[in-house]
Amino acid sequence: MWSTLVPRLYGFSGGSLRPLSQHSSPVGRAAMDSIHVELEVSRDLLELLNVPEQALGPRLKQLIALEFCREDRMSPERAAELLGLPRTEVIELLERSDIDYSTRVHEEAAAQIEEVWEKLKDQAS
Predict the structure, then answer these.
(1) Whole-angstrom Cα distance, residue 108 to residue 55?
(2) How far apart are CA 65 and CA 87, in angstroms?
(3) Alpha carbon of 84 to those of 35, 48, 96: distances in Å?
(4) In a structure prediction context, what are the per-residue pLDDT tens digits for the chain, which is 125 residues long?
(5) Among 15, 40, 50, 116, which is most buried by a count of CB atoms within 10 Å?
(6) Alpha-carbon distance 94 to 120, whole Å?
């Protein structure tokens, strides 16, 4: 999947991707399974990404999360959790990338309101 994601985002192919190892790491309240990936990226692609080499890993994680938000496969809240960023920062990234997130955010808010409403009803009875 990742080997096609970055070229699709930027219309450029120029590297190879292979998983190296798998491990779990704590993120927020939950533990997240993760894999370590070695990624070979051409200098041309690195220039298009406009990030220093040492910042490439975090930027690619960010691009993957943003793409999943664009595809409506991930909520901004989940993206924030996985990236270790405040939700407001992820929403700003989505806005700068012209990614519509409003439907998912409204659905999350409605679900949270429903959850609180159910708890209040349970406490009242």
Answers:
(1) 31
(2) 13
(3) 17, 25, 19
(4) 444 444 444 444 444 444 444 444 444 444 467 788 888 878 888 888 888 888 888 999 999 999 999 988 888 989 999 999 999 999 999 999 998 877 666 677 778 888 898 988 888 87
(5) 15
(6) 33
Distance CA 121, CA 125 (A): 6
Domain ranges of the chain: 2-124
Amino acid at site 54: Q
* pTM attached to this predicted model: 0.58
Q: Is 47 exposed, middle or buried (0-12, 13-18, 19+ CB in 10 A)?
A: exposed
Angle made by CA atoms 88, 56, 44, in degrees to the nearest 5 = 125
Structure tokens at 22: 């798998």
